[in-house]
Amino acid sequence: xxxQKNEVVKWLEGKxxxxxxxxxxxCGLLNWQGVQVPEFVWAALAAFGLGFLRAGxxxxxxxx
Length: 64
Known about the structure:
This protein has helices spanning 2-12, 16-32, 39-60. The protein is mainly alpha-helical.
């Protein structure tokens, strides 16, 4: 089980922000089609997106 988890984590490396962006796009399209997307979903997606973006920027920050 731990080996599978490690493979998933490795696969997600560098893709989490894109996954959140695609999810936001899908929610936007659903909302455009008349499906009611709860407000907390938008807030959670924004928080995840900013958190993953911050983590990515932190990883690429050069050492001083």
